[in-house]
């Protein structure tokens, strides 16, 4: 994939929800992932989004030229700043991408009290809500238009 660099995982977390993608209340379980967006001129943009599992709404989304742990941190910061004080434990589910296993991202999550859990490596079904969101976004919006830089 363009712009992708493999890095050794700093920290990997267990998958504690085992495909139970529900949450009785808001701000209990969120999912996150990245996707590639190919532009008409051949360039690539990377989108990082966070989905609220309670109502299946996207609550944060940032697109950038690079796929980095900084993009993941900025996406999480954006939603945390927009929420009123969180009550109880917030679980953030992701895949085992290097952006989410990096020292920078895991340290940031720890510093703001966000508990990380992760899919099994190479098993997208464990992050199905995000995979479905990106499939819908691409098929119903992105592929219907031509985007430039």
From TrEMBL:
Name the UniProt record assigns to this protein: Integrase core domain-containing protein
InterPro entries: Integrase_cat-core, RNaseH-like_sf, RNaseH_sf, Transposase_IS3/IS150/IS904
Record Pfam families: rve
Gene Ontology BP annotations: DNA integration
GO MF, one example: nucleic acid binding
Top-level lineage group: Bacteria
Record organism: [Clostridium] polysaccharolyticum
PANTHER family, alphabetized: TRANSPOSASE INSF FOR INSERTION SEQUENCE IS3B-RELATED (PTHR46889), TRANSPOSASE INSO FOR INSERTION SEQUENCE ELEMENT IS911B-RELATED (PTHR46889:SF4)
Integrase catalytic domain span: 20-149
């Amino acid at each position: 994939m363009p712009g992708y660099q493999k890095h050794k995982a700093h920290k990997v977390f267990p998958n504690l929800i085992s495909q139970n993608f529900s949450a009785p209340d808001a701000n209990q379980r969120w999912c996150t992932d990245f996707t590639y967006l190919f532009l008409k001129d051949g360039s690539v943009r990377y989108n990082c989004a966070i989905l609220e599992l309670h109502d299946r709404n996207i609550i944060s989304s940032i697109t950038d030229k690079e796929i980095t742990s900084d993009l993941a941190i900025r996406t999480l910061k954006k939603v945390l700043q927009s929420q009123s004080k969180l009550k109880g434990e917030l679980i953030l589910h992701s895949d085992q991408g290097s952006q989410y296993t990096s020292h920078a991202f895991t340290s940031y999550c720890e510093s703001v009290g966000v508990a990380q859990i992760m899919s099994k490596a190479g098993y997208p079904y464990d992050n199905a809500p995000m995979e479905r969101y990106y499939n819908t976004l691409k098929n119903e919006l992105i592929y219907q238009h031509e985007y430039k830089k």
